Amino acid sequence: MTYNAFPSKNNNQCYFSQDKQEIGLASKDEAIFFHELSHAAHTRLVGDLRTVPPWEKEVVAELAAAALCRIVGKEAQYLGSSFQYIRHFANQEGLSPVKACLKVINQTEAVLTAILGPLPSSSTGQYEQVFPYVFAEGAEATAPAQAAL
Length: 149
Fold this sequence. Notes:
single chain; mainly alpha; 3-stranded mixed sheet; 52% helix
């Protein structure tokens, strides 16, 4: 896969070309690169990204990009725009942003694993600082969590 920086044309700041296996950017913004990188990883997982509904591939890419931003310490600057982006595509499918994210969470995990590699079993605490949330199996959801769903 190649990576190209190019002058912005028609406010199109980036792209991932499945046919050329190429990411093109007109921005130095890490979040944009992570979004396009996530599309590239998603393509390798599903074969033909054109078979995935637009809302789904965009939510996967943006959710994975938000996680990657958090991993590299860029989350505070980007989370609001990531939420707005996800909400836009979720609304197209008649979903809340939370429901859209939950529908694609397994795909997003696979994309992140394709990019970062699997979590070594000997370092179970390695990502706890990045993702400090624990979901207990069989635990009851709180009222705010149920309302979000």
